[in-house]
Amino acid sequence: MAxxxxxxxxxxxxxxxxxxxxxxxxxxxxxxTREFINAVEPLFKREREKKDMAKLFxxxxxxxxxxxDALKAMLRGATALLAPGGRLSVxxxxxxxxxxxxxxxxxxxxxxxxxxxxFGRVETPFRLINNKVIVPQDAxxxxxxxxxxxxxxxxxxxxNNDRRxxxxxxxxxxxxxxxxxxxxxxxKKCLSNRRLKVRLRPLPNSR
Length: 207
Description:
Elements: H1 2-9, H2 14-27, H3 33-40, H4 49-65, H5 67-81, E1 87-92, H6 95-107, E2 126-128, H7 138-143, E3 151-157, H8 161-200
Helix pairs in contact: 1-2, 1-4, 5-6
């Protein structure tokens, strides 16, 4: 429970909150939202109570709905379905979602692991349209307060991604054959030198 509050709610007091829930639950079952709030409310500072309580319920919602898994599945499915040159636009509403989308558009995976080809170029199915995230302007936030946390990222699927992948694979095969020929030549030369040394080895003195 503490991990859920910390990872999905980004709450620094996650362990204390989890301990308070466990303690309250040991005394009687928590059946309503009000009972849950009463159990954790004393741990929140008055000036941050509203924001931190929202983060707490956000963490519970993400875990119950498996929202991070659904987001990753959507990104993988969209990548497979998009035609070359097609664009993927994603609006996120909190930092956890935005981090996953950002990593996926930059590296092709949710973890942000950079994979490089034989020549050291980053392998990713997308080209970023907006290098800097798009956020609502002040006028839009005033008109629609719920948009204040929205972040928009756009990426375009590479047109020559498949062709480039084939070229890279061909380059790897060519490099492999070249390396194999060099190794064979070096081995042959080594054997030739050893035979030469055997022929030039002086005979022992006979008495």
